[in-house]
Amino acid sequence: MHISDGIINTPVCIAANVAALGLVYLTGRKATAEEIPQMGMTGAALFVASLIHFPVAGTSIHLGLFGIAGIILGKRSFPVVFAALLFQSLIFQHGGLLTLGVNAINMGAGAYAAWMIWRIAVIPESIRSIMAGLTGILVPALLMVIEFRITGYGTAIALLLLVYLLAALIEGGITLSAVLFLRKVKPEILDG
Amino acid sequence: MVKKTLLLITLSLLVSTGGALAHGVNVETTFKGGVVVVRSSYSPTQPLVNAAVTIYSPGDPGNAWQTGSTDKTGHFAFVPDMEGEWTFVVDDRKGHMNRTAVAVLPDMPEEREITEDEVVESAEPSGNGLSKIHKIIIGLSLIFGITGIFYGLKARQGPKTE
């Protein structure tokens, strides 16, 4: 899901980096002292999650946990996604530094979509958490496919969505488990 | 004749690929009828499948000459169109990367394996000699360290809400 350097035009990447830094500032500047440990813990989980790979159809997919990030952090999820991607890029070469902004916007959009779904209180919590996990992966995957198409890749690139659909199902299950666990041990995290 | 021999000796010392092991990524290179064939693997039985490959030509070492990926057996091949030092980078996108420079000589025989002695350069640029667990620990330390700094700064400012 991480787009590497050299795929998207440099001017677009620079614009995306500027936009992402602006979003980091806007969504993170008023974080309270109580929120910061949650952001750190969620960022650590996101950072490590990308190393958990599943082999699928000749390639491999990895966890993202953007749905959980959206549920726990709400709008504070964007700076956390950005920081996790920055460290993944610097330490593991997952994605590039130039495409950091594009990747952060893609995956941050996934976390925000998950947060929006989580806020629809009329839907039962278990269904909401599965939907949040699904959208946390499918929204970034859809954005990535659109960006690849704009860059000039053929329509076959859309087949990637099938692979990510499987990843999304796994994430849906993990998000449900996490929500059930948090509801039992620390429900205020989910209601914050 | 002497000049040509000297040139070949110099090129052999300076240039060419081979079996190169760098932090778990093994690269074996063979020259076959004008084609450079490379097999990348973690171990003899574990190839680097679908790893990203970037090739740089001697004429323009700053820009990729060709990009692609390894096959199911960890192989990729390219046809060099000039003599000189060709560099390729194999990246499994999971933290393992190997950069190898190989020499394409003017009088290369039809088929031969490029030996380890002929490797110009083989390194793992992204690895920095660290294992994955070390990298995870470094990353988590940075994240928790930065979290602590921000927490300290915010706590000093006192409770503030939006």
Main attributes?
heterodimer; A: about 190 residues; mainly alpha; Arp2/3 complex 21 kDa subunit ARPC3; globular; B: about 160 residues; alpha+beta; Immunoglobulin-like; 2 domains; 5-stranded antiparallel sheet; about 25% helix
Topology:
The complex is a heterodimer of chains A (192) and B (162).
Chain A: H1 10-28, H2 35-49, E1 53-56, E2 59-62, H3 66-73, H4 77-92, H5 100-118, H6 125-151, H7 160-185, H8 188-191
Antiparallel strand pairs in A: 1-2
Helix pairs in contact in A: 1-4, 1-5, 2-3, 2-4, 3-5, 3-6, 4-5, 5-6, 6-7
Chain B: H1 2-14, E1 20-22, E2 25-32, E3 35-43, E4 46-47, E5 52-56, E6 66-69, E7 75-78, E8 84-91, E9 97-104, E10 111-113, E11 121-123, H2 132-157
Antiparallel strand pairs in B: 1-2, 2-3, 2-10, 3-4, 3-7, 5-6, 5-8, 8-9, 9-11
Can you describe this structure?
The complex is a heterodimer of chains A (192) and B (162). Chain A has 192 residues and is mainly alpha-helical. Chain A is built from eight helices and two strands. In chain A, strands 1-2 form a two-stranded antiparallel ribbon. In chain A, α3 (66-73) packs across α5 (100-118). Chain A is globular, with a radius of gyration of 16 Å. Chain A starts with 9 loop residues before the first helix and ends with a helix. The mean pLDDT of chain A is 89. Chain B is built from two helices and eleven strands. Chain B is elongated, with a radius of gyration of 22 Å. Chain B is an alpha+beta fold. In chain B, 27% of the residues are buried. The longest helix of chain B is centred in the last third of the chain and has 26 residues, at 132-157. Chain B folds into two domains: 2-126, Immunoglobulins (Immunoglobulin-like, Sandwich), CATH 2.60.40.10; 130-162. In chain B, strands 1, 2, 3, 4, 7 and 10 form a six-stranded antiparallel β-sheet that branches. The chains are: A mainly alpha (192), B alpha+beta (162). The interface between A and B is medium-sized, with 28 and 33 residues.
